[in-house]
Write a sequence for this structure.
């Protein structure tokens, strides 16, 4: 299959620039995979599609304010740094923009959110084949502790914000209500729809909830540059699968319940572990799993997700899940997306939700 096979046209006005006025006040498109039937509902209707004995599994990774702004010492050129992965305290791989002409030994002085210079600096120590830079931070005991003062919410580029904008809304809403361990540079967006009241409603219905942690990095959102889907290589991402969640899934299976993954990141953790070991095993790990048609699935029975970018790995994953083990899930998914566009659904991170049953 070719990357271009997953293209669709999205009117720019359907890209959600802000979350709904109230968390959870989103629409829900339900796709019944068996017959291709769709329903147009509201997100608070979700518990109606869950059965007592099912298990809902969510990604509890916490988004960090990972976007930093500064200037190169000497030339004075403006730079933007997106923290990608921590090697050790004050030692990070980052994506620099513009970074093409940045060389090792380049020094950067960072600004706070109002554009004023701070005592925090960094030196470029290396550059890898992917163009990412390794920075050594100075002027602070641990850059993680300074992010609350100088970091910005790492919103994706299709969400437009002015420089030095008031981040109050995004700090609250680009984060799930159940976020725990910090480490993501993008939100696990399917989880953004949930409120504490919704989680309570799910549990009252007899549905158990469990968590995984996948720190969302570039692997989830990097564009597919290869012409052929199979030639794309995913970036590596860190995850942790708790023993409690492994036990929950085993118990759910034993009583005939379904495993509902909240988000593609949750699905990728469960399917990655199952593919590697032939079963679910608790513990930390790293994954480069790339799911696309005609992939099969070993763990997940239903998927709650948002609407994804054209030609993205996430759209390919949804297409695989729409009809497991076959390639015709692409047509079903694109047909459903076309219906969502006609119906005016809001797309991408702050957009509406889709449930594949």
């Amino acid at each position: 299959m070719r990357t271009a096979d997953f293209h669709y046209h999205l009117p720019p006005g359907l890209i959600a620039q802000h979350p709904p006025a109230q968390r959870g006040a989103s629409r829900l498109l339900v796709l019944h995979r068996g017959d291709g039937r769709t329903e147009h509902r509201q997100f608070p209707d979700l518990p109606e599609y869950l059965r007592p004995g099912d298990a809902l599994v969510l990604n509890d990774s916490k988004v960090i304010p990972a976007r930093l702004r500064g200037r190169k010492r000497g030339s004075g050129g403006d730079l933007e740094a997106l923290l990608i992965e921590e090697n050790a305290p004050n030692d990070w791989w980052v994506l620099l923009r513009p970074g093409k002409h940045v060389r090792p030994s380049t020094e950067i002085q960072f600004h706070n959110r109002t554009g004023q210079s701070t005592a925090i600096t960094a030196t470029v120590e290396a550059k890898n084949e992917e163009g990412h830079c390794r920075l050594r931070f100075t002027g602070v005991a641990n850059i993680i502790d300074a992010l609350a003062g100088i970091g910005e919410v790492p919103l994706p580029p299709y969400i437009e914000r002015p420089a030095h904008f008031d981040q109050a809304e995004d700090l609250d809403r680009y984060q799930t209500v159940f976020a725990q361990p910090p480490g993501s540079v993008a939100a696990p967006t399917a989880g953004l729809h949930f409120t504490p009241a919704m989680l309570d409603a799910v549990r009252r219905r007899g549905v158990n909830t469990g968590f995984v942690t996948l720190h969302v990095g570039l692997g989830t959102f990097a564009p597919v540059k290869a012409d052929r889907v199979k030639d794309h290589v995913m970036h590596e991402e860190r995850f942790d699968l708790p023993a409690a969640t492994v036990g929950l899934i085993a118990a759910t299976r034993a009583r005939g319940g379904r495993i509902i993954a909240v988000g593609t990141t949750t699905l990728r953790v469960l399917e990655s572990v199952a593919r590697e070991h032939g079963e679910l095993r608790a513990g930390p790990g790293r994954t480069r799993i790339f799911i696309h048609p005609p992939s099969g699935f070993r763990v997940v029975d239903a998927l709650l997700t948002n609407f994804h970018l054209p030609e993205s790995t996430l759209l390919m994953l949804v297409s695989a899940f729409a009809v497991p083990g076959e390639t015709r899930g692409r047509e079903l998914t694109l047909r459903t997306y076309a219906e969502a566009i006609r119906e005016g659904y809001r797309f991408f991170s702050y957009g509406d939700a889709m449930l594949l049953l």
